């Protein structure tokens, strides 16, 4: 697909965005391929496409590259998870957090959320690249990506001198302060909760090992004491196997509800931070344009005034989009956390009830042995 065709911002998606699912992940050596399914608007069936992480990067870059879209730099882009790695190092696993657990199922869920949010976004879904990504049988990510206005390296260099720039709008100044605090707290909460889940997984593994080890104590023979001891070992093994299953369920519940919510919330706060930084850069450009217009000599006065007016119009559009995005993000963040807390409580209550029933059965079995 040609660059001009891909960047065309008049696309209407031919799928229902809310039906997008990343159904499975296939591993070929160090490469992970994700199967994406979505329902056609026509009602005639589904699209099935396979995509690698390079394809997701291709989509993200084309979303960034819509430089002719008014106010684009005010968009809080749905955050793409960090690149997955097979047999990842401890450092990479720490970056992945919850997304590195559970045989890549949480990671598939994160990619699914990313695609659904892009498809639901009033500006981003119009990009032709979204339709191509979701429906084309040819993987798009083999094309060479070009640098764009959101280049991370240049952003990091400029950030040293622009990040602390005083804002002229109290709304954005306050939001920037709130973002700084919330980003730190959310990241810490996600890291601490991940420690809890990893500990639960370790307990489950230890219980499984102990349940298996108890079978070593089982002896054959007619000696009554040995037979009684063997029965106790078998029953204890069953108890610890139940504890293992219960603890595994608790860890899965933690991971799939509150864990993924904290991970997504943390990544979205980082995305908001990047948007606020881009706006600050445009504010600095506007202030410089105004200074240049004031200092311009008569021969360049009109040209500098035009530059200033263009900068003012662009900045105004960015601020308009940014305010809408921030208000929506704050509302959706609260709703998402509330929804996942409720799911977390409901699933853990169900797991607790099932565990209590299993332990009661084991207790009755021990009483019967007495």
Automatic annotation (TrEMBL):
Protein name: PX domain-containing protein
InterPro entries on file: AH/BAR_dom_sf, PX_dom, PX_dom_sf, Vps5_C
Keyword field: Protein transport, Transport
Family: Belongs to the sorting nexin family.
PX domain ranges (all copies): 1-141
Nucleus among keywords: no
């Amino acid at each position: 697909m040609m660059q001009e065709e891909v960047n065309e911002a008049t696309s209407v998606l031919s799928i229902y965005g809310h039906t997008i699912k990343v159904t499975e992940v296939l591993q070929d050596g160090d490469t992970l391929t994700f199967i994406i399914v979505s329902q056609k608007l026509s009602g005639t069936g589904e699209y099935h496409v396979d995509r690698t992480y390079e394809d997701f990067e291709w989509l993200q870059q084309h979303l960034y590259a819509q430089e002719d879209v008014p106010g684009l730099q005010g968009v809080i882009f749905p955050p793409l998870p960090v690149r997955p790695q097979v047999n990842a190092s401890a450092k990479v696993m720490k970056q992945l957090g919850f997304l590195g657990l559970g045989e890549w199922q949480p990671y598939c869920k994160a990619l699914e959320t990313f695609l659904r949010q892009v498809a639901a976004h009033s500006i981003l879904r119009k990009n032709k690249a979204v339709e191509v990504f979701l429906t084309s049988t040819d993987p798009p990510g083999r094309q060479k990506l070009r640098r764009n206005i959101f280049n991370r390296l240049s952003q990091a260099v400029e950030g040293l001198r622009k990040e602390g720039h005083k804002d002229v709008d109290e709304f954005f100044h306050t939001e920037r302060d709130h973002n700084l605090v919330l980003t730190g707290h959310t990241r810490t909460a996600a890291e601490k909760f991940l420690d809890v889940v990893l500990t639960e997984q370790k307990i489950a593994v230890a219980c499984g090992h102990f349940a298996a080890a108890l079978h070593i104590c089982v002896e054959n023979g007619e000696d009554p004491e040995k037979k009684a001891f063997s029965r106790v070992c078998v029953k204890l093994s069953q108890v610890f196997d139940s504890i293992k299953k219960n603890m595994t369920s608790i860890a899965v519940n933690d991971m799939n509800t509150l864990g993924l919510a904290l991970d997504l919330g943390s990544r979205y706060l980082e995305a908001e931070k990047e948007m606020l930084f881009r706006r600050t850069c445009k504010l600095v450009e506007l202030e410089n344009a105004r200074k240049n217009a004031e200092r311009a000599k008569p021969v360049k006065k009109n040209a500098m005034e035009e530059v200033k007016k263009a900068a003012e119009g662009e900045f105004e559009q960015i601020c308009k989009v940014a305010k809408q995005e921030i208000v929506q993000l704050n509302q959706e963040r609260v709703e998402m956390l509330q929804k996942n807390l409720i799911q977390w409580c409901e699933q853990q209550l169900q797991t607790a009830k099932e565990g209590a029933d299993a332990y009661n059965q084991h207790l009755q079995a021990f009483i019967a042995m007495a």
